[in-house]
Amino acid sequence: MSEKAFSDATKISDTTKEAIVTMDGVYKRFKDFEALKNINFKVGKQEVVVVIGPSGSGKSTLIRCINRLEQHDAGTIVVDGTVLSNDLRNIQEIRKETGMVFQSFNLFPHLTVLDNVAIGPRRVRNLAKSEAEEIALKLLERVKIPEQAGKFPAQLSGGQQQRVAIARALAMKPKVMLFDEPTSALDPEMINEVLDAIKELANEGMTMVVVTHEMGFAREVADRVVFMADGEIVEVGTPEELFDSPREERTKKFLSQIL
Amino acid sequence: MTKPLPSASYKIPIWRNIKFLRIVFQVSVIFVVFLILNWLWGNYQINVARSSIPTDLRFLDNPANFTIPGSDFDQSQPVRSAFVEGFFNTLRVAFIGILLATLLGTLVGIARLSKNYLLNKLAAAYVEVIRNLPLLLLLTFMNLAVVLQTFPRIEEAWKPLDVMVISNRGIAIPWFVGSGTNLAAVIFLAGVIAYLVKKLRQKHSDRTGKPARDILYSVVTFFTLIAVAWFLLGYGLEFPFVDDRATSGGLRLDPSFFALLVALVLYTSSQIAEIVRGSILAVHKGQGEAADALALSASQKMRIVILPQAFRIAMPALGNQYLNLIKNSSLGASISYFELTQVAQITVGNGSPAVPAFTLTLLVYLSISFFTSLVVNYFNRKLELVER
Amino acid sequence: MRPWLKQNLFRSYLDGVLTVVSAAIAIWIVVQIFTFVFITGRWEIVQVNIKLLLIGRFPEEHIGLLLASVMAIAFWIGVTGGAFVKPGAPKRSVLEIARELFQRFGLIALLGIAIVYLAGTGEALVAGLQIVVAIVAGRLLSALRTRVKLLSAIPSLLWIFVWGLAPTSLIWYTLSVSTLETWGGFLINFYIAVLSIVLCFPLGVLLALGRRSSLPVIRLLATTYIEIVRGAPLFVLLLLAGVALEFFIPPEITPDVIFRSVTVFTLFTAAYLAEIIRGGLQSIPKGQTEAGKAIGLSTVRIIGLITLPQALRNVIPAQIGQFISLFKDTTLAGAALSMFEILSIGKAITKQDDFLGQGLIYESLAFVGLMFWVGSFVMSRESQRLEKKLGVGIR
Predict the structure, then answer these.
(1) Are the C-beta atoms of residues B327 and B372 closer than 8 Å to each other?
(2) Nearest to C264 by CA among C239, C286, C247
(3) Chains that touch A (3 or more CB pairs under 8 A)
(4) Residue range B79-129+261-383, CATH number
(5) For chain B, domain boundaries
(6) Interface predicted TM-score (ipTM)
(7) Where in chain C are the domains?
(8) Who among A104, A109, A172 is closest to C295 (CB)?
(9) Which of A193, B187, B240, C205 has the fewest CB atoms within 10 Å around its CB?
(10) C137-168: per-residue pLDDT in tens?
(11) Averaged pLDDT for residues A51-67
């Protein structure tokens, strides 16, 4: 990555805040395909970072490495002071402090909506059932679907399911939320309700890394936008800098294709 | 101000290190399995020492001391030859059984889909009745009730159309006279020529656009060639007849072979019928609709669109049924048909050591299963859809 | 009427011919069966030996205990039948309920009536009635549960489990009081099948998980076991167990026939069950496990709470199919191990002095066949019904 990109990527917008996620010289390869090359990246507390780029650029791999859904091959990843390694305890710690929302929701179909949200507090943080359910209900209110608590995921619309997924991730009270293309699998009319929920979270001060194609959303909410291509971070900047006056050729080409 | 990065090279305590834990777990499992096997083996050694039966494979060289009906196996021949004989008997019943079961099963399966109400229900009844009975019951029925009970004694044997002889000694059918291998060669050659004819007709059709009728031409060629060779080489057909309390001439199917074959065919065909029906139904409805929209005839629709896809869907399940049939042939031992398992049982009864004999038998079955799986997988892969 | 005939039976000339031929065959079969069952069949052989066929040489003095156990099981079946009815379900008329029950279990009821008739004793009738009463009582108890607020708070599975303790303890007691060697007939077929399916479950689950494990040693061990067991004929394994099992256990213990057969059936069925469960596990989308990991659930918890419950539920029809196969295969134990199960008895009674050489094998085998056929047919129909109700279906 270029020197400018390096400094932008590793400079948190608000330098008074500490870094929640730090990636230092991270590489990842799948068989003979290099998915991540020399990733240097920081996310500060309460910062919202949006990652964009063409498919195959490594954006999903990047955030999946953060909670060890993929294992990085070289470099260091630190989340909230804990180093991500083969240490079982560290991995569990990091997973408790990160919440992930998937493109295909991945709700548990055999549990009710309430149980889906409560399972984290109940089984991982070992809270009592009533306490866990109370937390779950409050979160369902926060994403504006408390009345669906007794239903099963299959009975809900896509937008509602994704909001349940957000509530489920929030139930663990994470330090950082990871969103892997949260609206890509939704019908157009439901995208907004999910984006609104994510915007609210941002406004309340949640640290977030969001991989998405929704440029309007990025403009509104992001503190920094990261453009990735071919496994590298190509360019980083504020939404105005990146969208209105991109520096790199690859960035310009990509933006011209989608905007 | 950002804190300095903690060093990643600190030592991970070994009880939390995933890599280490994985290895430890696997090693302990191996250890436990080893302990169990060791205990079993130890017991085996103790018991064998106490029983003074030899446990190596020398028993294979001992004379068998039993005869195998339906073959010229002499009782002085070694046990290993008996095993070979049994092996071939297993293959014989399995091979014919698979052919007949597939044929019958496919017919019943298609009947099951017929729009004719009666035919449909009759086929359904056939499948439901047989599927829910234990195979051993069917076999016992065929053996004790049909063959030994209902079939007449040789003096009063049935001779339907004067062509076969049916008695409780077995069934004799007309068979070819003349060297077996030559006949096989003739059939093989006829097959090859018929195949060439099929290809030529297809090429002709591609060029001129006229219907190929390749199957018709090749089948006619096949049988004509065989008939011609028949006359030229002077093959005859031998009809069986009763000759002083035995049948002469023709091919004699001995009673337990017949009973086993029929039971296996009936049982497996009912399973195959369901598979055939299921796989034809599983072909997407839209395929049939597309074929109709293209104005393909009903037979073209079946041949070109539905059946090839149905066959691909059915292949793994069919392969499974064939494996089951091969394994089920071991039940022949319960009616004294001298397939592999019966040979093993008799020789153990005669004093051969049980564990090596039966282990050998199991190994043979495993090899047959393995080989059949390979063949089925090969066909499976050839039929797989080419995907992105 | 006429258009239906034309559509379904006489579409074309060929179709008409097929109809006539099929009708002739069907009529001939029905007539043959009718005459055999009601006219020409000599059913004394079954009548005299009914007790032998059903329960072998079970000691007379303990039959009451056996009957009590059967009633307890019947009661428990009734309880289970009603346990999944939701409190708010629409009430149905007695006629509707009776019709549905007849459709589903009418065959079993008819078989029961036939057995009682063949047995010809008043005791048999009383026993039959007692069993029916037990089932109805169990069902009513479950119905009561939906009415009483306190009881309906108990989860269904717990309800079923608690009431299952009664028959289990009764059976345990019966076992300890009567010697297992005297058990025989259909009872032993049933007993071995149930025991084997219960025992093979944990092993099957472990093997399925092992086969999908990312640890190479575990995967290899599980796959080897499964492939070897599935490639071997059950009959040969039983024969092997009959002569060879004692070589592998300490000399002081002599295993009886039932121990041998249950061991083989358990180890055998576990391999097949493992493949079925593996199919179920494979059908769970990978994203579920990932979501579980992302929340921080441990691997054990993910398997236990997320993947396994769904997988097991998805393959219930295939599991039932395996149980039906096992049930029918118990007949092999009779041939391989000289166990006194119903088919062996069926063959043996034709050699009794009174019945020797009279060709009564047809009647005998017909009865044995009927016992298996009704059980198997009703079970597979129930499985299809369950499949539809659950809306799942992976075979």
Answers:
(1) no
(2) C239
(3) B, C
(4) 1.10.3720.10
(5) 14-51, 79-129+261-383
(6) 0.87
(7) 1-40, 59-177, 184-395
(8) A172
(9) B187
(10) 888 887 777 777 777 667 777 777 878 887 88
(11) 90
